[in-house]
Design a protein that fits this description.
Elements lengths: L1 E5 L4 E5 L7 E6 L2 E5 L5 E7 L22
Antiparallel strand pairs: 1-2, 2-5, 3-4, 4-5
Length: 69
């Protein structure tokens, strides 16, 4: 997973994998979902991101729970 914030255009982007993007849909105003050819979710973009987060220059990441083997 890769998270980028572009301050010049105020867009937060989260990529879940490296699959080529075949289609993008604006699911809700300001939220764009990117899909691969097979329909799987590749990533998402949040427009005007600084309006939706406290600190656009920092990211907190945590893994919670333990996946059963």
């Amino acid at each position: 997973m890769k998270v980028t914030y572009d301050a010049a255009v105020d867009v937060l982007r989260i990529l879940f994998n490296d699959a080529p993007i075949a289609e993008s849909d604006e699911d809700k105003p300001g939220v764009i979902l990117d899909y691969a050819e097979d329909g799987s979710l590749v990533g998402m973009e949040i427009l005007d991101a600084s309006k939706h987060m406290n600190n656009p220059n920092g990211v907190e990441y945590a893994v919670v729970g333990v996946k059963a083997a």
